[in-house]
Amino acid sequence: MLKPGGKLTTKNLKPGSRKSKRIRDQNSDGVPSGRRSDFGRPSGFESRISDFLLWQLADSAFPTGGFAHSAGLETACQHGKVRNRIELISFVEASLQQLGQAALPFMTAAHHEPERLDDFDRLCDTFTTNHVANRASRLQGRALLAATERIFYSPERVLQAALSSNGEDALKRPEGRAPRPPPFVHFSPVFGAVMRRLGIQREMAVRLFFFNHLRSLMAAAVRLNIVGPMEAQTLQHRLSDRAEEVAVRCAHLSLDDIAQTAPLLDLWQGAHDRLYSRLFQS
Predict the structure, then answer these.
(1) In the CATH scheme, what is the homologous superfamily, with its name and number, of domain 65-274?
(2) Residue 251 binned pLDDT confidence (cut-offs 50, 70, 90)
(3) The model's pTM
(4) Burial (Cβ within 10 Å: 0-12, 13-18, ≥19) of residue 18
(5) Given CA atoms 133, 134, 137, 143 in this order, what sign does their dihedral have?
(6) Beta partners for 32?
C-alpha cells in the first residue's frame, strides 16, 4: 500500500503489475520514455509545429494585401445592391461559388505541378478579362510572394524553390540568381505554388484559400458599414459550412472546368474604377 504523502515508484507495486510496467516505461516527469523531442517534450508535439505556420498564414496580420480589395462588394454597396445582412449573405455565397469555379482550379493545379507555374499564370491572365479583377489578382500575388520571400526565405531562393519540383533540393543548392518570376504573378497560381513549397497539404491549402477569401469579405463588409464587427464574425462562422461545401465540391475541378458563375459580381467589380469615392482598390 502507498502511504499518505508517499511517492509512487515501482517499489510500491507488485512485480509484473500493469502500473509497475507503466511507471518503468515513463521518465520522471511522466512522459513515456523513448518519445521525447529535442525540446524535452513528447515527440507528438513536433507534429503540431506546422499548426503555427497555418495560423500565421491565416492571420489577418500576414501582409498579403487582401484587405485592400473588396471583390466587388464596395461597388455593389454603393449601387444599393448590398445594403443589409440578407443581401450580404447572398453576395458572399455567390462570391464563394465563383472562387471555387474560377480561381481554385489555378491554385490546385499550381500546388500539384509548381514547376508549371508560368503556364498556369499565363492562363490565369488570359482567363481574367475583367481589368479590375486582373489588377487585384496581380497585386495580391506580388504581395504574397514578397511576404513569403522576406518572412520565410532569402529573396533569391524562394522562387527557385517554388518553381522546382523538389523544393527541398532547390534550397540546398548554392545561392545564385533567382529564376525569373511568373510573367504576371497572379494570386491563385502563386498561392498554390507557395503553399506546396511551405509543405502545406493540398486539402489544407484549399481550406486556407477559402478562409482567406471569406475573412476578407467580412472585413470589407465591416469597413463599408454593412454589418458590425460582432455580426460579421457571426456570419463568418455560419458561412464557414457553405465555404467548406463549395471547397469540397470544387476541389477536384481541373483547368478545363474553369468558368465565371456570377457575371453580375464580375460587372460590379469591373465598375469599381468609376466610383466617385472608394475605400478599396477593387
Answers:
(1) Urease accessory protein UreF (1.10.4190.10)
(2) very high
(3) 0.75
(4) exposed
(5) negative
(6) 26
